[in-house]
Amino acid sequence: MSEKGGKGFKSSLKSSYGPRESKYTFLQDSDEQIQGSSAKGGKGSKARKSTLSKESQPLELKTDKELPENAKCLMDCEAFEILQGIKEQMAVLSEDPSLKLPVSFDRGLEYVKYGRCYMNPQSVRQILEPLKKHGVSESEMCVIANVCPESIDEVFAFVPSMKGRKDKISEPLEEALMKLSKLKRSA
Amino acid sequence: MFIKVKLPWNVMIPAEAMDPNGLMIQRAVLIRLLDAFASKKATKDLGYFIALKNLEEIGEGRIRETTGEIVFPVVFSGITFKMFKGEIVHGVVRQVHKSGVFLRCGPCENVYLSQYKMPGYDYVVEGNPLFMNQNMSRIQIGSRVRFIVLDIQWKEAEKEFIALASLEGNNLGPF
């Protein structure tokens, strides 16, 4: 299980990681759980019988309720920028066999390479961010950016959770889509 | 959907890996962390582990008295991928059966699209088996298909997700 720092933990290093004197304390009990991996990112996992939902509720995205607190969603174009950057760095560092990439990295990169429609994630975020004040959630924003809608009807079809706020958000959404259409990458 | 998550982990450095001058601690911690991250395939809460983005903090090391290993608490940000029920995603067809197709969506190899969830598509064998509709739109091995996630299930033993897909809705299907 993940140990969040534990006793005696000080976050004493800044991001520059300059040389410093290291201080060590002895651990008295060997029961302290050590891991190279954390089991949880936040919420406790509960064993659940996995069955298909038999309810007739509309299929709505509930990412915001399902994500742990320390996590946030990324748009595909943002993920591409990050993963491509890592790949370029790994190309330089690949001579060192001790540096490994996760097995899912290539599949993840392939997914965003073909799926994204925008080249400039910062511009996309700037265009969609104002929708938040009209009640659009972070995950809804990411889905809009990921599906590259041509019209607001498409948005409401892909993100049914927004239908209830149709009157309130149609106009700002229309405006955002118009700006987004100028950013779409050429095929 | 991709997720950026901040995680606290403990990284263990064996005593023999420590530089006598203590100057290569950050490198040793980073290498061990990368190794641990790379070995962790997926979790139920966060999905598939894709990449380690930033090592944000390295705390004070603590020596395990019994083994001499040094434990460093670290905080890092990572990128993961997880499908959510109701999300619109895309995948590549990897197997075609009479009852439906299997797709790969990012790192998830086990997405099943039943023939009953492909409205307008019929199973056809044109040399290779495929599904085709009246507009001659084909779903075959290698096709990239946009779908909605009907349901998703975590398999603890295999550290894998399986998902059910559907094309019921506007603008879903091969592209």
From TrEMBL, chain A:
It comes from the Eukaryota. GO terms for cellular component: nucleus; RNA polymerase complex. This is RNA polymerase Rpb4/RPC9 core domain-containing protein. Residues 1-63 are annotated as: Disordered. Belongs to the eukaryotic RPB4 RNA polymerase subunit family. Its main location: nucleus. Residues 66-187 form the RNA polymerase Rpb4/RPC9 core domain. The keyword Ligase does not apply. GO terms for biological process: DNA-templated transcription initiation; siRNA processing.
TrEMBL record, chain B:
It is found in: Nucleus. Residues 86-167 form the S1 motif domain. GO terms for cellular component: DNA-directed RNA polymerase complex; nucleus. SUPFAM superfamilies: N-terminal, heterodimerisation domain of RBP7 (RpoE) (SSF88798), Nucleic acid-binding proteins (SSF50249). Its main location: nucleus. One of its GO terms (molecular function) is single-stranded RNA binding. Gene3D superfamilies: Nucleic acid-binding proteins, RNA polymerase Rpb7-like, N-terminal domain. One of its GO terms (biological process) is DNA-templated transcription initiation. CDD domains: RNAP_II_Rpb7_N (cd04329). Keywords: DNA-directed RNA polymerase, Nucleus, Transcription. InterPro entries: NA-bd_OB-fold, RNA_pol_Rpb7-like_N_sf, Rpb7-like, Rpb7-like_N, S1_domain. It holds the Pfam family SHS2_Rpb7-N. DNA-dependent RNA polymerase which catalyzes the transcription of DNA into RNA using the four ribonucleoside triphosphates as substrates. PANTHER family: DNA-DIRECTED RNA POLYMERASE II, III (PTHR12709), DNA-DIRECTED RNA POLYMERASE IV SUBUNIT 7 (PTHR12709:SF7). This is DNA-directed RNA polymerase subunit. It comes from Brassica campestris.
